[in-house]
Write a structure and sequence with these properties.
about 350 residues, alpha/beta, eight-stranded mixed sheet, about 35% helix
């Protein structure tokens, strides 16, 4: 029998969210993600080999976005140390992983961010930085980021919820759109997003409410037209990403009584082709403290990778990770809905 103390112990934020996701709801039959995978011949979902190491270097951010699945903000103190970064470098040096995806928070706010980028480049890896744009114009210490990114041929992926100020500011904070446009112009000035360079600047769109994103190609055309004509801004591709029911977005769904309808919507448009190609199959996510996850979303729910020997970057074993079973839960319906969703946009 559990002690009263154990029974009364409060659940962590991640456990609270997992409890919500795991509880049956509504009048319809409760459909498990594992059931859908089984019907598609994909259960258990397994790795196809690690090609991308996605590293969250900290939850500190200069913004507090209403949809943020990381719960990032200026008050977050979780920052990856230089020692943990070195463990990541050691793991990379012993693997054939070609791409390193740096995220946060605002990854540039980690005091060792630039050192880390330089060391990763010495290993010959392609680097993606998930830049929120406004960090570039936050203060003078960041004004040279476009030149730094260019020097190291960094691929940039940057969130811009809409091509108009009202919708962007509603999701990401007052004045964010104007600052984002300033940053985009600074990036364009050094060659990012321009036709005659190889400097990639991709934008990310995700809906502001409880609905799925529209067609990615149509959205990209609209963004290119509106940003080009109204602000003389250029970029390469637009990635449409589905909001997963975790962190602040799950709280929003519960607060507005949209949770049941949103989950039913995700489940009703489950796509087996998207399920076969989900990003967790070729990616490992590293938390700010070095623990390993199948994806960034599992990281926020504290669902560590399966396996007894490789839970932390210090114990990195690419063979074990290449052959692991992916940890799944109900939030995974977000990545397999409709055209599918990944950090690189649609997947089918």
């Amino acid at each position: 029998m559990k002690s009263l103390k154990a029974q009364d112990a409060p659940l962590s934020h991640a456990d609270q969210q997992l409890k919500i996701l795991s509880e049956p709801y509504g009048d319809e039959e409760f459909v498990l993600f594992s059931q859908k995978l089984e019907e598609s011949g994909l259960y258990p979902l397994t790795s196809t080999g690690v090609e991308i190491l996605q590293i969250n270097v900290g939850k500190m951010c200069n913004q507090t976005c209403s949809h943020c699945h990381v719960d990032a903000g200026p008050d977050r103190k979780e920052i990856m140390t230089k020692e943990t970064m070195q463990l990541c470098l050691d793991a990379l040096s012993k693997s054939n992983i070609k791409t390193v995806d740096l995220t946060g928070g605002a990854p540039e706010m980690n005091p060792d961010f630039r050192w880390f980028v330089e060391e990763i480049k010495k290993l010959g890896k392609h680097i993606i930085v998930r830049c929120n744009l406004t960090i570039i114009v936050a203060n003078k210490s960041y004004y040279d980021l476009p030149k730094f990114f260019k020097k190291h041929a960094i691929e940039l992926v940057s969130s811009l919820p809409y091509f108009a100020a009202a919708k962007t500011d509603a999701q990401r904070g007052e004045g964010v759109f104007e600052k984002s446009i300033r940053a985009l112009k600074m990036l364009n000035d050094v060659g990012y997003g321009m036709q005659d360079t190889d400097l990639k600047l991709n934008l990310v769109y995700n809906p502001s409410g409880a609905f799925l994103p529209g067609d990615q190609n149509a959205l990209q055309n609209d963004f290119k037209k509106q940003l080009g004509e109204n602000y003389d801004v250029s970029f390469n591709e637009l990635f449409a990403i589905t909001n997963l029911p975790i962190s602040r977005f799950l709280e929003y769904l519960m607060r507005t009584d949209n949770y049941v309808e949103y989950m039913d919507k995700l489940i009703s448009v489950y796509n087996p082709i998207a399920a076969e190609n989900v990003m967790c199959r070729n990616t490992i996510s590293v938390g700010w403290d070095g623990y390993l996850y199948d994806c960034d979303f599992n990281q926020m729910l504290e669902l560590k990778v399966q396996g007894n020997n490789t839970k932390h970057i210090r114990d990195f074993n690419v063979q074990e990770l290449d052959n692991r079973e992916i940890v799944i839960n109900q939030h995974c319906f977000g990545c397999t809905a409709g055209a599918g969703s990944s950090c690189g946009g649609v997947i089918s």
